[in-house]
Specification:
Blueprint lengths: L32 H12 L3 H7 L6 H11 L1 E2 L6 H13 L8 E4 L6 E4 L5 E5 H6 L2 H17 L1 H16 L7 H31 L2 H13 L8 H13 L3 H11 L7 H12 L2 H7 L14 H18 L3 H28 L17
Parallel strand pairs: 2-4
Antiparallel strand pairs: 1-2, 3-4
Helix pairs in contact: 1-8, 1-14, 4-6, 4-8, 6-8, 6-9, 7-8, 8-12, 9-12, 10-12
Length: 363
């Protein structure tokens, strides 16, 4: 079982493999900087989510709960017991006190989601259950528990509600542009929240190879004997660096309508994070605690997010990102030259401060 075999908040049964547990861990420990800055800001808005929870009657959440209860299989000790063990284990490791309900629904498309305002529920499809082995599935369950711990289910539902509300006023001049701006920003946050949840899945499963296998299967199906992790990651490298400016634009257009990053990109991002000092510190027991969340600075979170994007642009091999970085560097150099030029007008003008000239002075 996990490090400590004692019962914890109802997590009486956990699988037998040794895994490190993270008591009191804050979701900030694994959240992507862009995801974290948005969540910190939302959490600071006192009563914001409470108001929208009160409006939950306007949302289809109650209907969805009844639908899954009536037409899906609820995971328990009697049904899909192996998934129930994984769910308990993930909640135990990430120290999520209340185990969310989990349902298996008949759908050949591999998928999983965490939804709900009042209480999150996790739903996995039969296509996903049949596709993944135990360790791969453990990473997926940890991924969804990560969504629950971060509060993504609440804030996703709130933002989707706001988006649907904005659509109703799209007839206002420039309304469509405003709605598209909201939707684009919302999807960008969705994509970053998925990277956060991938990290939570790794913390829960603590098996990077299994996480990678799961992402490969999501991309290429149950044909592992025909796939190779290194070659899969090379695709991400080629996708990032290949082509010219036209390809850069096409990549942007391809990703805009998506709520999830591409599978190769997710694999590359997760492997990079697994090799980082941040991940190692978490595994060593050094991570932010939930008790400290209230003291988190919104400004610091936004600055960290901005620094991440700046570093991404600077280190990216994408042709468009390289152009943006080069232009920024050129603009910075030009700004420095302009400042030095203006400094000349305000500099002291005594003879000793003037630069020497090649021609000697004459009377």
């Amino acid at each position: 079982m996990s490090d400590d075999g004692n019962e914890h908040d109802g997590h009486a049964r956990v699988p037998s493999r040794q895994r490190r547990r993270f008591p009191g861990i804050s979701s900030r420990a694994y959240e992507h900087p862009a995801d974290r800055s948005a969540l910190v800001a939302l959490r600071k808005l006192s009563g914001f989510d409470t108001v929208f929870k009160a409006l939950s009657g306007l949302l289809p959440e109650r209907s969805l709960r009844l639908l899954f209860l009536s037409d899906s299989v609820r995971v328990s000790d009697q049904q899909f017991a192996h998934l129930n063990d994984m769910l308990r284990d993930a909640c135990y490791i990430l120290d999520l006190e209340k185990v969310p309900p989990m349902y298996v629904t008949q759908d050949p498309q591999p998928n999983a989601m965490c939804i709900g305002l009042d209480e999150p529920i996790i739903v996995v499809t039969t296509g996903l259950v049949e596709l993944l082995d135990e360790e791969e599935m453990r990473a997926v369950v940890g991924h969804e528990v990560g969504h629950a711990l971060s509060g993504h289910a609440v804030y996703r539902t709130i933002l989707l509600f706001l988006t649907s509300l904005a659509v109703r006023v799209a007839w206002i001049p420039l309304g469509n542009l405003a709605v598209m701006a909201i939707v684009t920003a919302l999807r960008e946050w969705f994509r970053k929240s998925e990277l956060s949840a991938d990290r939570a899945g790794l913390l829960a499963g603590q098996d990077l190879k299994a996480s990678m296998r799961g992402l490969m299967k999501m991309a290429g199906g149950n044909h592992l004997h025909e796939m190779n992790v290194d070659a899969f990651l090379e695709q991400a490298e080629e996708y990032e660096a290949g082509g010219d400016l036209r390809d850069s634009v096409l990549k942007i257009l391809n990703v805009l309508p998506r709520t999830h990053p591409f599978a190769t990109v997710r694999a590359a991002e997760l492997k990079k994070w697994a090799a980082s000092r941040d991940y190692q510190r978490i595994m060593d027991g050094h991570y932010p605690r939930r008790s400290e969340d209230k003291d988190t600075s919104v400004g610091d979170s936004f600055r960290e997010s901005a620094a991440h994007y700046a570093n991404h642009v600077k280190s990216s091999k994408d042709p468009l990102m390289k152009l943006v970085s080069d232009l920024a560097d050129s603009a910075g150099g030009l700004g420095g030259r302009v400042r030095r030029g203006f400094d000349g007008f305000t500099a002291p003008t005594s003879p000793k401060d003037r630069p020497p000239t090649d021609t000697p002075e004459t009377d």
